[in-house]
Amino acid sequence: PKRKSLVGTPYWMAPEVISRLPYGPEVDIWSLGIMVIEMIDGEPPFFNEPPLQAMRRIRDMPPPKLKNTHKVSVFVLSDSIVTI
């Protein structure tokens, strides 16, 4: 079922959530992507901005990109082996 509630931490919210549009599980993929950016860049996009301003940017701008793309191969290689 689609939801319209506004719940979450602003910097990790998907644009659909901020816009109060109906959304489904795909917003969790957005948040996961933001967590990956945070792991590589050290902070989520717009983290130095007040939450409401960050929410406007998330809603109105294209999806964020990594700042430190040179770290990706090191990050992936060092953390790619997981034992379950």
From TrEMBL:
Keywords: ATP-binding, Nucleotide-binding. It comes from the Eukaryota. It is an enzyme of class 2 (transferase). Its EC number is 2.7.11.1. The keyword DNA-binding does not apply. The keyword Nucleotide-binding applies. The gene is ORF69169. Residues 1-84 form the Protein kinase domain. GO terms for molecular function: ATP binding; protein serine/threonine kinase activity. InterPro entries: Kinase-like_dom_sf, PAK3-like, Prot_kinase_dom. This is non-specific serine/threonine protein kinase.
